[in-house]
Amino acid sequence: MKKGLLITLEGPEGCGKTTQSELLYNYLRSKSFSTIKTREPGGTKVGEDIRNILLNSDYKNIDFLCEFLLYNAARAQLLKEVIKSSLESGKIVICDRFLDATLAYQGYGRGIKKKVIFTLNKIVLGNLLPDLTLTFDLNPEEGLKRALKAKKNTHDRLEQESFFFHQKVQQGYLKIAKVYPERVKLILADKSIEEVHKVVCSYVDKLIEKCRPGRITTNED
Question: Which are the contacts of 143, defined by CB distance < 8 A and separation ≥ 6?
């Protein structure tokens, strides 16, 4: 029987999910829950090396299938080194991007067939799915402005993609939220950081309240 909780944060570029993942991590730690925070691609030495390739603007012509496989390779390593063991020990795992990012970016954005994505997801993830996914919705124009400002007027490889690509990604996330309403909660990201954080905490608190006793460990355990 699965222990721990897997909470994933998703959304288009500049939506604020990384800031919210940090705030959520601090919030859960303040409540004495044993919590770790990680990201995709990344979270391991192998994953971070793959991340450097995927976001490097020198690789603008990377093949879409190659890109898709690299993301899944990083995910497989993250599952092995970090996520599975953390869940087994009863920890709450916060992951900045996860499987829905693949469907939004490589599926809706790149046009890779869903059957291919779902097949590889099954190979990499098995039966593991997030307990809760918080998807931050923001129009691409505002999101790219935020991303540019945060990175001091430089864009990584994905941020340099066409506006049409980013529109497809955003629409993909909206479609995913409609298909999986029990797991995926859509949050409007055009509010203040504090307002968005309150919504995030409300969803997470409800999830924790539903958990059976002993599923989640605390720092006192």
Answer: 12, 13, 14, 15, 166, 170
Query: pTM, whole model, 2 decimals?
Result: 0.94
| Residues 78/85/92/210 CA torsion (nearest 10 deg) | 120
Q: How far is CA 21 from CA 16, 48, 85, 124, 140, in A?
A: 9, 18, 20, 24, 20
Per-residue confidence (pLDDT) for residue 142, from 0 to 100? 93
Angstrom distance (rounded) from CA 203 to CA 211 = 13
- Third-level CATH fold of 5-210: Rossmann fold (3.40.50)
Distances (CA, A) of 54 to 15, 67, 95, 191, 197: 19, 7, 18, 30, 29
Inter-residue contact 34 to 17 (CB < 8 Å): no
Strand order in the sheet with 92-96: 35-39, 92-96, 5-10, 132-137, 184-188
73-118: per-residue pLDDT in tens?
Answer: 999 999 999 999 999 999 999 999 999 999 999 999 999 999 999 9
- CA nearest 135: which of 92, 93, 91, 104? 104
| Residue appearing with tokens 């991007």 | 97
pLDDT score of 152: 60
Which residues of the chain carry a pLDDT beneath 70? 1-2, 152-155, 220-221
- In the chain, what is the greatest distance between 2 CA atoms, to the nearest angstrom? 50
Tokens of 79: 């599952």
